[in-house]
Amino acid sequence: MRIGFVGGGTMGEAMVKSLLAKGVAKPVDISVSDISPARRDVLKESYGVQITDDNREATKGADVIVLAVKPQEAGKVLSELRGISQKQMVLSIAAGVTMDSLKQGLGHDYVVRAMPNMPAQIGEGMTVWTATPGIMQKQREMAQAILAAMGEEMYVDSEKYIDMATALSGSGPAYLFLIIEALTDAGVHIGMPRPMAERLIVETMISSARSVKVMGKHPAELKNMVTSPGGTSTEGLLQLESGGLRSLLLKAVIAAYNKASSLGAK
Known about the structure:
It contains twelve helices and eight strands. It has helices at residues 10-21, 37-47, 55-59, 74-81, 99-106, 137-148, 160-170, 172-189, 194-215, 219-226, 232-242, 245-265, and strands at residues 3-6, 30-33, 50-52, 64-67, 89-92, 111-115, 125-131, 151-155. Helix 7 crosses helix 12 and helix 8 (172-189) packs across helix 9 (194-215).
């Protein structure tokens, strides 16, 4: 499978790194275009892929064209790529750029839209994706292989879920990082050395998430397993509920979803 990347920034590099690490592609199969000479040098030296500053050159002969550009750059890039072969599948990770915008800008019907998240940089991301009806089974399998290289992937049959995923799993790491930071600061406040507090919280976050996945129980049931009548967890949860943590997280996701939807409307 030959893959041409338009954009070699943070997420583009994460995809290249994951594809090579999982053996989905070899360096000779990957070409990346980027406007930054520094980025091109990093990609060439670190991964041995082909690099260029010409988007058309990067996508020539590719089975899959990955659009890893910022939303504000999408219009220009789409016009540059207009006229690509109908045999080429386009996989876009540009936030907020809709399937209709991609199809109209490219004059092309074979499009996959995906939303990976930040942990894809270490091969443990969560990606939600969808595809136009014209995508063939072989192309669908290629898209799945590319996205699975970055971690978990989930296909959805409606594009409406992409903006929802942007707000939940796309922005979600930022919410969790804030919680980790806040709990670490709390540990320091009560007298614990910062490295100790951070390690305790990070490992607790990882193991708690795995408990939900492995045990298959509702989070509320697992929460009750930790919470004893009149105990320390009960007292802490009372403060969190009194402070509106649950409501604030809900509002954060709704605000992020509205923002994602407005990006697609532009």
